[in-house]
From TrEMBL:
This is NADH-quinone oxidoreductase subunit NuoF. Residues 443-488 form the NADH-ubiquinone oxidoreductase 51kDa subunit iron-sulphur binding domain. Keywords: 4Fe-4S, Iron, Iron-sulfur, Metal-binding. It comes from Almyronema epifaneia S1. NCBIfam families: PRK13596.1.
Length: 545
């Protein structure tokens, strides 16, 4: 395939899309609330009205306002139809014909606060294209960045462009992407690999799943550009088995890309060869750690190993290996298309671009959002998220999953960035953001995450294997109101021991939810101490009862 063929496919697809399109979200979230039945009834209604030539009902990926699904959008009207039922399908079609009807579903305006502050880069095609049609991705500009990279840039120039963009890894720690690519690129050896970490395991997180369900070709293209940049000809996507729809869309996307010559040998007639295989994991949280992930891809038990050597030096089957997550790769085509200066102009001085968050918890507008780095938490929670239901009050926001921490409501004016969240005792993580109200027990929250980490520990190192068990038991002691002041001191000391001596990121970050709740909500721990312990504490301090 050459660039002219790509342009021809794009134009033919855009011509087909001139008809009115009823875009029905069939991502996993909307499917769970009956989207497939809605789509079927929309197709029947269009056929019954004899409008097959004028209206196309199509499946698209996530329309983002997940708490209002099933969602349907049209090209004729701005905004969305929300909480659509199959019975309302004829009313939607009738409205498109200009007929008044009383049985329409709720409509959400395009300027709704949930959307008003979003800046879709990673999600620019999400909800706009059919993820199972490569032609629609091409019509939206897809694979043109890959052609540009292969035909007009050297591998070194691609690395420099990614470095200049300021993109940082969207999987957790925020390591500079260009630096990681440059490290793999300079490693000797004929065989190198590119891996996409799609093992999204944080409770409450669904960002990567939504991207893969909604725009799989975007990730494939990002991986191919990465492969060209670092000198790799083989990529792997490591994804958990709990994401069957994402896996199906990826498999179909890989097959389509091969058929069009956009994957395989001599892509676009260049000397560059690249193929991608899928590896399905069993859902072990520890396999999100890159050395455990590599072991799992190799068919071994997914346990971490000490570093160095790092995967960039000695990774998959002992070869230099580049590992980034889904969102990181999904940024790459846009950077190559629009340039590093454009991307670097978005966000803050040290945190460039946008970030996708799964906004959930005690919030009126749960869903998927993409905002520029530096957006205040208050804007996300109170304006976009609509605040707490029933007029409640925000107490805390949990970010970073089991590796993160809890941010108190007093810090809601903090701009979202890697540095600002670390200062608050949490982290960006992959993008989970859970809102908690004043009814939430922060000790309960800490106990939940510790139970998760205890269960997900691979058991290889003693600090994590035994430390998470002991931390969990101490937290339960507080919840049973049997703890003493010495237990509070022991809890904090044990957190630091586990954090500083565990082998991998799971153990090193497992105490974070406990430490952040101790930092901001220690009064809740004190309130749960036994009455005897509190009386003893008062007696020792000399305070009156």
């Amino acid at each position: 395939m050459d660039i002219q063929e790509l342009r021809t496919i794009a134009q033919k697809t855009r011509d087909r899309q001139q008809k009115t399109r009823l875009r029905c979200c069939t991502a996993a979230g909307c499917q769970s609330s009956g989207a497939l039945a809605v789509k079927a009834e929309l197709e029947k209604a269009v056929q019954s009205a004899g409008l097959d030539e004028a209206i196309e009902v199509c499946s698209v990926g996530c329309l983002r306002f997940c708490g209002q699904g099933p969602l349907v959008a049209t090209t004729e009207q701005a905004g969305l139809y929300a909480q659509v039922t199959p019975e309302q399908a004829p009313a939607i079609v009738a409205q498109l014909q200009g007929q008044a009807t009383a049985s329409l579903p709720q409509q959400l305006a395009a300027d709704h606060p949930f959307f008003a502050h979003q800046m879709p880069i990673v999600l620019e095609n999400s909800g706009q294209i059919d993820p199972e049609r490569i032609e629609e991705y091409i019509a939206a500009g897809g694979y043109a960045p890959l052609h540009h990279a292969l035909m007009e840039m050297s591998a070194d120039e691609v690395v420099q462009e990614i470095s200049a963009s300021g993109l940082r890894g969207r999987g957790g720690g925020g390591y500079p992407t260009g630096l990681k690519w440059a490290t793999v690129a300079k490693m000797p050896g004929e065989q190198k690999y590119v891996i996409c970490n799609a093992d999204e395991g944080d409770p409450g997180a669904f960002m990567d799943r939504s991207v893969l369900e909604s725009d799989p070709h975007r990730v494939l293209e990002g991986m191919a550009i990465a492969g060209y940049a670092v000198g790799a000809n083989h990529g792997y996507i490591y994804i958990r088995a709990e994401y069957p729809l994402a896996i199906a869309h990826l498999q179909k996307a890989i097959s389509q890309a091969k058929r069009y010559g956009l994957m395989g040998a001599q892509i676009f007639g260049s000397p560059f060869d690249f193929k991608i295989d899928i590896r399905v994991g069993a859902g072990a949280f520890v396999c999100g750690e890159e050395t455990a992930l590599i072991a799992s891809v190799e068919g071994k038990r997914g346990t971490p190993r000490p570093r160095p050597p790092y995967p960039a030096e000695r990774g998959l089957w002992g070869c230099p290996t580049l590992i980034n997550n889904v969102e990181t790769y999904a940024n790459i085509p846009a950077i190559i298309r629009q340039g590093s200066d454009w991307y670097a102009s978005i966000g803050t001085e040290k945190s460039k671009g946008t970030k996708v968050f799964a906004l959930t918890g005690k919030i009126n507008n749960p869903g998927l959002i993409e905002v520029p780095m530096g957006t205040p938490l208050r804007r996300i929670v109170e304006e976009m998220g609509g605040g707490v239901p029933a007029g409640g009050t925000v107490k805390a926001i949990q970010t970073g999953g089991p590796s993160g921490g809890c941010i108190p409501a007093a810090a809601l004016d903090t701009p979202v960035s890697y540095e600002s969240l670390i200062e608050l005792g949490t982290m960006m993580g992959s993008g989970g953001m859970i809102v908690m109200d004043t009814q939430t027990s922060m000790v309960d929250v800490a106990q939940f995450y510790m139970e998760f980490c205890r269960s997900e520990s691979c058991g290889k190192c003693i600090p994590c294997r035994a430390g998470t068990v002991q931390l969990h038991e101490l937290l339960n002691k507080f919840l049973r109101q049997e703890a003493t002041p010495s237990d509070l001191e022991k809890l904090e000391n044990l957190c630091h021991m586990v954090k500083e001596s565990s082998l991998c990121g799971l153990g090193q970050s497992a105490p974070n939810p406990v430490l952040s709740t101790l930092r901001y909500f220690q009064n809740e721990y004190t309130a749960l101490m036994s009455a005897t312990a509190r009386a003893s504490e008062l007696e020792v301090s000399g305070s009156p009862p």
